[in-house]
Specification:
- This protein is of the alpha/beta class.
- The protein has three domains: 149 residues, no CATH class; 192 residues, P-loop containing nucleotide triphosphate hydrolases (Rossmann fold); 73 residues, no CATH class.
- Helix 16 packs parallel to helix 17.
């Protein structure tokens, strides 16, 4: 403690020496250091130098006034503390940053000593841990204010070195999804600190896509975290095992129906061939707890990517004036978390009812701010459901408008028009076209019954 305090005092003396000898440095220093950062014996001197420099720009006159107020012995020693007392000396030797680092170190030491006293009296360990994490975050929020920015030209060596490393790393610099080439084409490769959003209507495959991405990356040896706020860990595990073993997850819900061949594909030896560093959490978490979980995974398991399923189920302890503002806050928080922790965050979110047939960002059920904060936003939907059922028939029930007295001829006309548009819209093989035409004719024959059923419901 004494050595650290002595080191801090020596840095204070260097800073004060420069301020006394070079009045141009006073504003620079005062914008980055406050009186409270200095030890008590130097509080008054720092304030006096600042106030006098505002009235007097001449170094000699400033020095004379300081001699009168603080004595020749003290000021004389400070004036000659370093051989070249100038602003350039402070910048070149990064004195301000060094000073803030030791101030921070002393603050943290004092902070932890107080917390240690509290912990000894506290019987609620989890609450204490969460409180400690929150207090530490409050300390870190001021970090941006204590780092001295360097001019772009001064940072060029560092920037070019980083580019050279990326050239050597090649494709290894970014993360790529090997099983989904179109995903890589759209992103150009995922970079750490990216926030990626996958939006879709209920049942369109958001979780399925996220798990595919998770398995793909884990198969490359990249640790991935999966925070499931919707499904239990057991459900997620079943889906992962089903995907690895090539078995529909619904069959694993009732495994009695599995064939012998399917059972062989999900034995321990079969599933253990590839190490999959996937970490699943299914406990409800606030946004702060999500950040703490991500940091824990990153520090302990070197997790690079975290999927969160899904945005609308995050529950904060903070009170918001509206749901829109709450969700906007979450998207901003997650983007800043990805940037601060150097991880990729993939967040799933819902589209509203219109999004089922028009899957665009305009139909985000969550905050539109998510589109602003995301580096990439994908909307996911099943094209076949927009125009076709899996058996080839047109999904005409979505086409019917709820109006009394709608004529069968009108509905038939709309159906024909939709068929013609879908033929142009979807790139179908010849076999698919035949199936489509067969389904279309069947749909026209069933149209009368469908209209009657629909009108009965409305």
């Amino acid at each position: 403690m004494e050595n650290k305090q002595t080191y801090k005092t020596s840095l204070e003396e260097i800073i004060l020496c420069v301020m006394i000898n070079d009045t141009d440095s006073v504003n620079y220093v005062s914008e980055r250091i406050g009186q409270q950062d200095f030890s008590k014996e130097n509080h008054e001197l720092f304030t006096e130098i600042f106030e006098l420099s505002m009235k007097e720009s001449n170094n000699d006159l400033l020095f004379v006034k300081l001699l009168k107020n603080f004595g020749a012995d003290r000021i004389g020693k400070l004036k000659d503390r370093i051989s070249v007392p100038s602003l350039s000396y402070l910048i070149k030797n990064d004195i301000i940053t060094l000073f803030h680092d030791v101030v921070y170190s002393l603050q943290v030491e004092h902070f932890l000593q107080l917390k240690l006293i509290e912990v000894k009296k506290d019987y609620y360990g989890l609450d204490t841990l969460l409180s400690l994490g929150s207090d530490i975050q409050d300390l870190l929020r001021s970090e941006d204010n204590i780092r001295v920015e360097k001019p772009f030209t001064d940072k060029l060596p560092e920037i070019l070195e980083n580019i050279e490393k990326r050239i050597v790393a090649g494709s290894n610099y970014s993360l790529n999804i090997k099983g989904i080439p179109s995903f890589n084409i759209a992103t150009g490769g995922i970079l750490v600190s990216n926030l990626i959003t996958i939006a879709g209507f209920t049942g369109q495959g958001k979780t399925f896509l996220a798990l595919n991405i998770t398995l793909d990356l884990a198969g490359q040896g990249i640790p991935v975290g999966f925070i499931s706020l919707e499904q239990s860990e057991s459900e997620i595990n079943d889906r992962l095992i089903g995907m690895v073993g090539g078995i529909p997850s619904d069959k694993l819900r009732n495994p009695k129906g599995l064939t012998k061949a399917e059972i062989k594909r999900i034995t321990l030896p079969a599933l253990s061939k590839n190490q999959l560093p996937i970490y699943v959490n299914d406990r409800p978490l606030t946004e702060v707890e999500i950040k703490q979980k991500i940091k824990y995974w990153r520090d302990r398991f070197n997790v690079k990517v975290v999927c969160i399923d899904y945005l609308g189920l995050i529950q904060s302890r903070t009170k918001f004036t509206s749901r829109e503002r709450e969700l906007t806050y979450y998207s901003e928080f997650l983007k800043l978390t990805a940037k601060e922790l150097d991880v990729v965050i993939i967040i799933l979110t819902q589209l509203n009812r219109s999004g089922k047939f028009k899957p665009t960002i305009d139909n985000l059920a969550e905050s539109i701010g998510l589109a602003r904060d995301s580096d990439f936003l994908f909307t996911i939907y099943k094209p076949i459901e927009a125009g076709l059922k899996s058996n080839g028939t047109i999904k005409y029930d979505a086409l019917i408008e709820a109006r009394d007295g709608i004529s069968l001829d009108k509905m038939d006309s709309l159906l024909v028009k939709k068929y013609a548009n879908d033929i142009k819209k979807y790139k179908l093989s010849e076999n698919e076209k035949k199936l489509f035409a067969k389904g279309f004719n069947k749909a026209r024959n069933e149209l009368s019954d469908l209209v009657n059923m629909y009108l009965e419901k409305t």
